[in-house]
Amino acid sequence: MRVGVLVIDFGGQYAHLISRRLRELRTFSLLASAEGGLDSIKEFEKNLNIKGIILSGGPASVWEASHDEIAKWAINRGVPVLGICYGHQLLAKILGGRVGKAPRGEFGPTTVEVINENLILKNHGKRFRAWMSHNDAVLEKPPGSMILAKSPGSPVAAFKYRDEVFGIQWHPEVHHTEHGIKLFENWLSLTNAKGLWNPGDLINEIVKMIRDLVRESKAIAAVSGGVDSTVAAVLAKIALGDRLIPIFIDHGLHPEGEVKRAISMLNKNGLEPLIIEASGTFLDALKGIKGPEEKRRIIGRLYGKILEDEALKLNAKFLIQGTIYPDVIESGARPGADIIKTHHNVGGLPRDLKFRVIEPLRWFYKDEVREIAKMLNLSEELWKFKQPIPGPGLAVRIEGEITREKLEIVRKADKIVREEVESANIHGKLWQYFAVLSASKATGVKGDRRAYGHVIVVRIVESRDAMTANVARIPWGVLERIATRITGELSSVTRVVYDITPKPPATIEWE
Ligand code: XMP
């Protein structure tokens, strides 16, 4: 069983970041949504030897949303507990402190004054800038606790109760907070989980796990040429040798040239997939379908059906999939999580498949998977430069119904974006750069005539793990060239817009 920290998510925007920061400190952590109540949180004990618990921030007031039971459970376990923002107020409330309207709300950078340089505030100096976002505050400390810090709007900005329970009003997980990572490091030194997580060290363990599960049987692996599915298939290949059959399904929704690129990438990394051409089947099934979730479900179902047919033909009893941790969380594949999107490789697959699904990477974030790829000596092109392409491909980059004509437009526009970004040699630090065909139409003038055509959206983002993303500030000249080429080379496009929305509040893909 994995040893680590359980982060309880009370619906705060940054709960995921907490889990990421802990992993950066080489400490395994899982995110448990509070929505399913205490019972669903207790489920995590089956997968995790819990050495510490963090209570995240959340939008509610401690007087509206009652999560007292969860906080009591956390405190009574006797492991180190850290409450952040809402979590801090919740701990204070159940320990008998006074929580109420703050003397003033604090939003954004706030100066925190250290009153007692206790362990978790070690090396923070006398004053530091921390990012806060709250209307309520802890006004009086719980009896028997000690105040560690204050700020203009928080008389008790940090407190300590017993030796192992801490509350802080600010968000150490956010980059704008000074010493944020230091705070986690300090707190983690109280747990026995720090430094035990190294994704690369787990290669042998994963290979053994696959071997033990599959035994003498055969497995197929669904591969797309992306990092996750390639790494999962390579690990399975190490475990099973020729008893692993990689399968690449051409669903006809790939960007221009992607099928060729993917196959050559797979070959370079030692995988010779069976290629199944099924574009007609997918396009037929998607006829008339407009909703993004429905498109995803249809693609997922068909994908599963094709894999199932192949498994039957090959007598394979297992399917290896490159599902990663954010897919698991966003698809609501465990109790208490919200379904954000039905990622076709998790929620989209039918439940009654005739094989068992093995997801060797389901606990890893994307950058950890890249690390494993590097350790496996896979090509740099794969782990350093490969853009993630969503499983449903261009189906989620065409707003509304998919037609051959629209596919052709978005493919050409996407190719231009790719060419211009790559020839400017700025792609090394980008997460994704692509075109979306919006459902809008806009007026233009082409050759002295009024034109009424499509609007192409250019989306270029930087990210570490796709949980958050920033809009890339790419040189203006590159954007101009992209717009000129798209409107010049595609007669039905009258307008090109650059999406300047970060994630959150937007997602990376448009659908
Ligand atoms: P969003 O749009 O949720 O995307 O910010 C986060 C990352 O996931 C990719 N993505 C998908 N991948 N199936 C996939 O396999 C999907 O349905 C899907 N939707 C989004 C997206 O490209 C980004 O890297």
Protein topology:
Layout: E1 2-9, H1 15-24, E2 29-33, H2 37-42, E3 48-55, H3 68-76, E4 81-84, H4 86-94, E5 98-114, E6 127-140, E7 146-151, E8 154-161, E9 165-168, H5 180-188, H6 203-214, E10 219-222, H7 227-240, E11 244-250, H8 258-268, E12 274-277, H9 279-286, H10 292-314, E13 318-320, H11 325-330, E14 356-358, H12 366-375, H13 380-385, H14 404-423, E15 432-446, E16 449-462, E17 470-471, H15 476-489, E18 493-498
Parallel strand pairs: 1-2, 1-3, 3-4, 4-9, 10-11, 10-13, 11-12, 13-14, 16-18
Antiparallel strand pairs: 5-6, 5-7, 7-8, 8-9, 15-16, 16-17
Helix pairs in contact: 3-4, 6-7, 9-10, 14-15
Bound molecules: xanthosine-5'-monophosphate (XMP).
Xanthosine-5'-monophosphate (XMP) binds at residues 296, 341, 343-345, 388, 390-392, 396, 432, 466, 503, 507-509.
Features:
5-stranded parallel beta sheet, 15 helices, alpha/beta, Rossmann fold, GMP Synthetase, Chain A, domain 3, 511 residues, globular
Provide a short characterization of the protein structure.
The protein has 511 residues and is of the alpha/beta class. The protein has 15 helices and 18 strands.
3D architecture notes:
The model has no long low-confidence stretch (mean pLDDT 92). The protein is built from 15 helices and 18 strands. A 9-stranded mixed beta sheet has the order 2-1-3-4-9-8-7-5-6, sandwiched between helices. By secondary structure, it is of the alpha/beta class. The protein has helices at 15-24, 37-42, 68-76, 86-94, 180-188, 203-214, 227-240, 258-268, 279-286, 292-314, 325-330, 366-375, 380-385, 404-423, 476-489; strands at residues 2-9, 29-33, 48-55, 81-84, 98-114, 127-140, 146-151, 154-161, 165-168, 219-222, 244-250, 274-277, 318-320, 356-358, 432-446, 449-462, 470-471, 493-498. Helix 9 runs antiparallel to helix 10 and helix 14 runs antiparallel to helix 15 (476-489). It has 3 domains: 2-188, Class I glutamine amidotransferase (GATase) domain (Rossmann fold, 3-Layer(aba) Sandwich), CATH 3.40.50.880; 199-385, 3-Layer(aba) Sandwich (Rossmann fold); 397-498, GMP Synthetase, Chain A, domain 3, CATH 3.30.300.10. Bound molecules: xanthosine-5'-monophosphate (XMP). Xanthosine-5'-monophosphate (XMP) is lined by residues 296, 341, 343-345, 388, 390-392, 396, 432, 466, 503, 507-509.
